[in-house]
Amino acid sequence: MKTIATFLIILLASLSFAQSGRDECIIAKTQHFNRLQKFADIDYPGDSKYDVKYYKLDISVNHTAQTISGNVTCNAVMVDQNVTEIYFDLTDPLVVDSVLVNGSLKSFTRGSNKLNIALGTTLNQGDAFTSVVYYHGTPGSSGFGSFEFSSQGGNPAIWTLSEPYGAKDWWPAKDTPADKADSADFWITVSTSLIPASNGKLMAIVDNGNGTHTYKWKSSYPIAQYLLSMAITNYAQYTNYYRYSPTDSMPINHFLYPGSLNANIPQLNKTPGMIEIYAEHFGEYPFINEKYGHAQFGWGGGMEHQTITSMGSFGNMLIAHELAHMWFGDKITCKDWHHIWLNEGF
Asked: What pLDDT, in 10s, does the model give residues 200-255?
């Protein structure tokens, strides 16, 4: 059992870390959001005519061509009356091949980083619908680097960081934190030489027999669009456990570059104790039926992707800071980006 004194030491050290200017996560986000406040889209609502219930991303990543292709399913319910058209946020360079709504092909138009879809009928409040968007192209990179093709140790390294409005750079989304999906699936197809880490629980790995495999990840908890993520390279993997009862435990899955795993294992082994302390003071870990974990990536700080924090390094304070976001930022999420200080402050 950890003491309140131990917790306060971690908390005070975290504050000192931020105030000293060494917390790249907070510094970079603060600078970006200060710039964002000059624009009206800091509280951008997306298409307010519908309420998202579920996303399924089924994406193939070609690291050689630096392209993606696939489809995104969205289950939603109308909140407005007499709706004949909806839109998703999707940057113009990505090519839309076709759109289905409730199983039927629909016409669509592009422009202003939106995908406008004609429903071909009128939907009213409470009507459910399912859309599937097929698309391909080279993703853009805005904000903190929403989609990056890079390398590490001579190997491909691909990663996403969609906060605040970067989701639309690589998938058709309702790009606002105000409308969480109740659940999501994320199927990622890559070369068999690579491992894709993502949100939630790994349900299956499918060998496609053509030099690729598909990792099928499932998030059963509500999740905001900017927290859906993938990080891909030839990861080395290490697992330890948070034991939340005498008979139950939750895996903590760490995906690190092969050359850096062994040196960081002592740091990674501190994670279960940190979760225990936070759970004592903030309530149980919010995604206890899935996992927690870290995926090393090419950004200088960290990003609190739900259940799988993306990490540029593994210092005590960065591990503690990003872990705290599972409660403040992921479980409880700001409605718009005016309130990002609450995410970072808590």
From this structure: 999 999 999 999 999 999 999 999 999 999 999 999 999 999 999 999 999 999 99
- Taking the alpha carbons of 52, 47, 74, 89 in that order, is the dihedral positive or negative? negative
Domain end among 178, 201, 232: 232
Whether the model pTM is above 0.85 = yes
Q: Tell me which residue range forms the domain holding 338.
A: 4-36+235-345
E-strand stretches of the chain: 50-62, 67-78, 83-89, 95-101, 104-105, 108-111, 114-123, 128-137, 147-152, 155-160, 183-191, 195-198, 201-207, 212-219, 230-233, 236-243, 249-256, 292-296, 302-303, 309-311
Q: How far apart are CA 213 and CA 194, in angstroms?
A: 9
Largest CA distance in the chain: 62
